[in-house]
């Protein structure tokens, strides 16, 4: 799948200081690129009430993403208590 990084995701990832978390995110991005569909990605769950919004759990963090056709847009990376305030919109 093609992966697109939104500006909000890039700014969120710059704020992360934990190197272990960053390496997990890198591995996850590689898995998304290699996958043919989001169903192949462990932990990817569809957001209720939204047709294209998904989330992936990484410890206490969540990645908010949008899926359209064969393209995935990584939108946000925030702690679990913060992400649902801003994603999806």
TrEMBL record:
Write down what this protein is called. Answer: mRNA interferase RelE/StbE
| PANTHER family, per database record | PTHR38813, TOXIN RELE1-RELATED
- Give the InterPro entries listed for this entry: RelE/ParE_toxin_dom_sf, TA_system_RelE_toxin
Annotated signal peptide: none
SUPFAM superfamilies, per this entry? RelE-like (SSF143011)
């Amino acid at each position: 799948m093609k992966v697109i990084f939104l500006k909000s995701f890039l700014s969120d990832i710059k704020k992360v200081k934990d190197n272990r978390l960053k390496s997990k995110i890198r591995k996850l991005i590689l898995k998304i690129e290699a996958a043919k569909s989001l169903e192949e990605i462990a932990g990817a769950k569809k957001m209720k009430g939204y047709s294209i919004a998904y989330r992936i759990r990484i410890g206490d963090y969540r990645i908010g993403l949008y899926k359209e056709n064969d393209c995935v847009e990584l939108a946000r990376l925030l702690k679990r208590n913060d992400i649902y305030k801003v994603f999806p919109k």
